[in-house]
Design goal:
The protein contains one helix and eight strands, in the order H-E-E-E-E-E-E-E-E. By secondary structure, it is α/β, with parallel strands linked by helices. The protein has two domains: 41 residues; 97 residues, Immunoglobulin-like (Sandwich).
Length: 147
């Protein structure tokens, strides 16, 4: 009789063990997925900003009003290359620069690849100002006329 009681108790113990392992595993998976989403999706500071394409508007003038926000977006900038897009000319009296952000980078844990480099600005004072970006020997210059 004792043997008959041990079999169901052993079975219940084994099932409880596997159930506990199973729920722990799914919790870790859920946390990992959430963590990856946060890493892959960086915030964008200027949600309502004018988007400036530096390749299409190179050499052109863009009209702004004092207080307007605008972003200059360089698509598919190389991660880990010797150069990145950088500003070589800015009139800080007329154009305010905020911290750059990045979007559409590689998945978490992947080395290299490309990402979108977004420069954030605001028009501070009236006047004409030129903004110049350089990437290796490639130059993009955009003029802003702030009214």
């Amino acid at each position: 009789m004792q043997m008959n009681l041990l079999k169901p108790i052993a079975f219940i113990g084994i099932m409880a063990f596997f159930s506990a392992c199973s729920s722990t595993k799914s919790t870790k998976t859920a946390k990992t997925e959430t963590k990856e989403e946060v890493v892959v999706t960086p915030p964008v500071a200027n949600v309502n900003a004018l988007q400036v394409d530096p390749h299409l508007q190179n050499g052109k003038t863009i009209n702004l009003k004092v207080g307007d926000r605008f972003d200059v977006v360089f698509l598919r900038e190389c991660i880990g290359c010797a150069e990145v897009w950088r500003i070589t000319n800015i009139d800080k009296e007329k154009i305010g620069q905020m911290e750059s952000t990045y979007k559409n980078g590689p998945a978490a844990g992947v080395n290299g690849g490309s990402q979108d480099h977004i420069f954030h600005f605001s028009a501070k004072n009236t006047g004409v100002s030129t903004l110049t970006f350089v990437y290796f020997k490639d130059t993009r210059t955009i003029t802003f006329d702030v009214k």
